[in-house]
C-alpha cells in the first residue's frame, strides 16, 4: 500500500510551470530518491508535499487522506516530517531544546518530551552534544540535528532535502548510517540528494525529474542506464548509440 | 553546597529581603519608588511573554494598561463594583482586544507588527481623549477620571484603597512574584518551547508541528490579561487616570526599553532592567521635569544605545555569567573543604 501518492500535481509561479503533472507514489518502508538537475523542481515538489505551497492542480494523498493544501503543522501531526535544505536550527538554544520542540508534537508534558528527545539523540549518536548551543555545531552535526528534530515528531514519512550537501566523504558515510537507522525504525523516507554515491546506495526506487516533468523511474541501476537521464545530466553526446 | 541549593538560598534571601524592606524603609517616598519599580518590573515581565519569548516587538502594551485602569475605575465610579472585580473584568476585556489586534497583526514580521501596535494605541488614545461618554460609560475625555479618596487615614480592602503605602507594596510584590513564577513555568512548558522556536525560526517550527501564529496569539492574550491587572493597580495607586497617563506611547516604549536593556526573553531581564532604569526615570522626573521635561526618555535612549552596542542581548546575560562564576566558586570551595 502506498503511503504517499502524488496525483498529477502541477505548480505554477506566475507564468513559470515549476512542476508539470508529476505523479509518483512511495510504499511503506521504502526509501524513494528524487533526483534531477539543478532547477528541475525537486524542492518545489517537496514544498508542495510539506504544505509550504499549495499545488496549482492535482492531489496529494498521505496515509489514506487527501492532504492537498494542508498546513505544515497539521501535516507534522499526521506523521509527515521534513528537514530543510538550508538548515534552520534554533541557534540560541541547546541541541536538546531543539529536539524537544519536535518531541512536543506528540506530547504535552515536558518530562515526556525530554525523554523522547534523549532517546532520539542517543540513536543518532548526538547525545554527548545535547547541551551544546545548536548555533555552535559543525555543519554535519547541524544536519544530523535537523534529522533528530524531525524524528522526534515520530513521523511515518520523513522528507529529507539534501541533507548530505556540503558534507565530507566520511561524513557522508556516517549520514548513510543515519538513514539506515531511520529506515530500520520503520520510517518511510522520501529523499532529494545530489550525491549520487549516496543515493544509489540508499534508494529502493528512484524518480528523475527535469523541467518539472518525470523523465524516468525505477530501480537505481536501471535509472542510471536510462538514455533520458544521461541526456539530462550530461548532454546528448554522451548517450551511447 | 550544591548549585541547586545555592540558587534556592539566593532566591529565598531575595524574597525575604523584599518582604522585610518596608519594615526598615519607613519613608513613603522611597516606598513609592520601590512600588513603581515593582510595577514596571511586573508590566515588563508580562510584556516579555510576547516581546521576549514570541520574538516580536509589541510597542503598544499601554493600551492594555489603559483598558485595565479605565475598566475598573468606570465600574467603581458608576456602579460601585469593587476594583478587584473590575481588575478581572479589565483583564478579560484586554485579552479580548488583544485577540482582535493579534489575530491579523501577529502574522506580520518585524517592524510591521511594532508599527501596527503603535498605531493602535495612538488610535485608542485619540478616541478616549475626544469622547466624554461612550455608551453608558463616562470616560470624561482628556480630563480623565478621579477616584474620590476615602477619608484621610482610612483604608478599605474592598475599595482597593489604603491609608499607607505598605499594602500597595505587598500587593504589587505578590503580583510580581506570581507573574515571574508563571513565566518560569511557561518557559518550561510546551507553549514556551513552541513560542521560542516560532520566534527564532518560524518555518522550522511549523514543520515541527507548531502552529506559530496561534501560539503567538495565545501569548498575546495572556500577556494582555496580565498587563491590564497592572492598569487597575496603577489607577488605585494614583487615584487619577487620564489618557496621557495610561494610554501613551511613552509607557509602551518604556516597557520595551526596560526589557531590551535588561534582557529580552530572560526571566531576570525585566527585573534587572527595572532596577536599572526606574531610578533614572524617577530622579530625572523629580529633578529635571521643570527644566527638561521628557529628559528621562532621552536618558533611556542613550542607555539603550550603549547597552545594545556592548551587550546586545541585554544586561541579564553578563550578570548571569557573573552569578554562575560566583556559584561555582562557592560550591567548589565548600566541597573542597569537605575533602
Blueprint of the fold:
The complex is a heterodimer of chains A (241) and B (339).
Chain A: E1 2-13, E2 16-27, E3 31-35, H1 42-49, E4 57-62, E5 65-66, H2 72-78, E6 80-82, H3 95-103, H4 110-123, H5 139-152, E7 157-161, H6 169-184, E8 188-192, H7 196-202, E9 205-210, E10 213-218, H8 220-225, H9 227-234
Parallel strand pairs in A: 3-8, 3-9, 6-7, 7-8
Antiparallel strand pairs in A: 1-2, 1-4, 4-5, 9-10
Helix pairs in contact in A: 3-4, 3-5, 4-5
Chain B: H1 3-24, H2 28-53, H3 62-79, H4 83-105, H5 111-130, E1 133-134, E2 137-138, E3 145-146, H6 166-187, H7 190-200, H8 202-207, H9 212-238, E4 240-241, H10 243-246, H11 249-262, H12 269-288, H13 295-310, H14 316-338
Antiparallel strand pairs in B: 1-2, 3-4
CATH topology of chain B: ABC transporter involved in vitamin B12 uptake, BtuC
Mean pLDDT over all positions of chain A? 88
The shape of chain A, in one word, is globular
The Cα radius of gyration of chain A reads: 18 Å
**Helix fraction of chain B by DSSP (H/I, runs of at least 4):** over 70%
Helix and strand pattern of chain B = HHHHHEEEHHHHEHHHHH
Q: How many angstroms does the end-to-end distance of chain B come to?
A: 13 Å
**Secondary-structure class of chain A:** alpha/beta
Descriptive labels:
heterodimer; A: 241 residues; 6-stranded mixed β-sheet; 10 strands; B: 339 residues; mainly alpha; two-stranded antiparallel ribbon; 4 strands; globular
Amino acid at each position: 500500500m502506498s503511503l504517499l501518492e502524488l496525483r498529477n500535481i502541477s505548480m505554477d509561479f506566475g507564468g513559470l510551470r515549476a512542476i508539470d503533472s508529476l505523479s509518483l507514489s512511495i510504499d511503506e518502508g521504502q526509501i524513494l530518491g528524487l533526483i534531477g538537475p539543478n532547477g528541475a523542481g525537486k524542492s518545489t515538489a517537496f514544498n508542495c508535499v510539506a504544505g509550504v505551497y499549495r499545488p496549482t492542480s492535482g492531489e496529494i494523498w498521505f496515509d489514506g487522506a487527501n492532504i492537498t493544501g494542508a498546513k505544515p503543522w497539521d501535516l507534522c501531526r499526521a506523521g509527515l516530517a521534513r528537514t530543510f535544505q538550508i538548515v534552520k536550527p534554533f541557534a540560541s538554544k541547546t541541541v536538546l531544546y531543539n529536539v524537544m520542540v519536535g518531541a512536543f508534537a506528540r506530547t504535552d508534558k515536558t518530562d515526556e518530551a525530554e525523554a523522547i528527545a534523549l532517546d532520539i539523540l542517543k540513536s543518532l549518536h548526538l547525545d554527548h552534544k545535547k547541551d551544546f548551543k545548536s548555533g555552535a555545531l559543525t555543519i554535519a552535526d547541524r544536519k544530523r540535528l535537523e534529522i533528530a528534530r524531525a524524528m522526534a515528531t515520530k513521523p511515518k514519512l520523513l522528507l529529507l532535502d539534501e541533507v548530505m550537501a556540503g558534507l565530507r566523504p566520511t561524513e557522508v558515510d556516517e549520514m548513510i548510517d543515519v538513514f539506515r537507522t531511520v529506515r530500520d525504525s520503520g520510517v518511510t523516507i522520501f529523499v532529494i540528494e545530489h550525491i549520487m554515491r549516496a543515493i544509489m546506495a540508499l534508494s529502493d526506487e528512484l524518480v528523475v525529474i527535469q523541467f518539472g516533468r518525470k523523465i524516468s523511474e525505477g530501480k537505481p541501476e536501471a535509472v542510471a542506464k536510462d538514455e533520458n537521464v544521461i541526456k539530462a545530466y550530461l548532454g546528448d553526446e554522451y548517450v551511447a548509440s | 553546597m550544591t548549585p541547586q541549593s545555592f540558587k534556592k538560598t539566593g532566591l529565598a534571601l531575595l524574597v525575604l529581603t523584599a518582604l522585610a524592606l518596608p519594615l526598615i524603609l519607613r519613608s513613603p517616598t522611597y516606598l513609592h519608588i520601590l512600588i513603581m519599580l515593582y510595577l514596571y518590573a511586573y508590566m515588563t515581565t508580562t510584556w516579555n511573554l510576547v516581546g521576549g519569548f514570541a520574538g516580536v516587538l509589541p510597542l503598544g502594551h499601554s493600551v492594555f494598561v489603559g483598558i485595565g485602569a479605565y475598566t475598573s475605575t468606570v465600574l467603581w465610579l458608576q456602579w460601585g463594583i469593587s476594583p478587584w472585580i473590575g481588575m478581572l473584568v479589565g483583564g478579560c476585556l484586554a485579552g479580548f482586544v488583544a485577540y482582535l489586534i493579534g489575530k491579523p497583526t501577529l502574522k506580520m514580521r518585524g517592524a510591521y507588527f511594532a508599527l501596527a501596535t503603535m498605531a493602535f494605541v495612538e488610535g485608542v488614545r485619540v478616541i478616549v481623549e475626544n469622547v466624554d461618554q461612550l455608551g453608558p460609560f463616562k470616560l470624561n475625555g482628556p480630563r480623565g477620571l478621579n477616584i474620590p479618596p476615602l477619608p484621610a487615614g482610612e483604608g478599605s480592602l474592598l475599595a482597593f484603597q489604603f491609608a499607607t503605602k505598605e499594602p500597595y507594596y505587598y500587593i504589587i510584590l505578590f503580583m510580581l512574584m506570581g507573574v515571574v513564577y508563571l513565566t518560569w513555568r511557561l518557559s518550561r512548558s510546551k507553549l514556551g518551547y513552541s513560542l521560542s522556536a516560532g520566534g527564532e525560526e518560524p518555518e522550522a517550527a511549523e514543520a515541527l508541528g507548531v502552529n506559530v501564529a496561534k501560539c503567538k496569539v495565545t501569548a498575546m492574550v495572556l500577556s494582555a490579561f496580565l498587563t491590564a491587572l497592572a492598569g487597575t493597580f496603577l489607577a488605585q495607586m494614583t487615584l487619577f487616570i487620564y489618557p496621557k497617563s495610561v494610554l501613551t506611547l511613552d509607557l509602551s516604549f518604556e516597557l520595551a526599553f526596560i526589557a531590551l536593556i535588561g534582557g529580552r526573553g530572560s526571566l531576570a531581564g525585566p527585573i534587572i532592567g527595572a532596577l536599572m532604569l526606574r531610578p533614572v526615570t524617577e530622579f530625572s522626573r523629580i529633578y529635571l521635569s521643570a527644566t527638561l521635561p521628557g529628559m528621562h526618555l532621552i536618558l533611556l535612549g542613550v542607555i539603550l544605545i550603549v547597552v545594545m552596542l556592548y551587550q546586545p542581548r541585554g544586561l541579564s546575560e553578563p550578570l548571569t555569567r557573573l552569578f554562575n562564576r560566583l556559584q561555582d566558586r562557592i560550591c567548589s570551595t565548600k566541597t573542597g573543604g569537605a575533602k
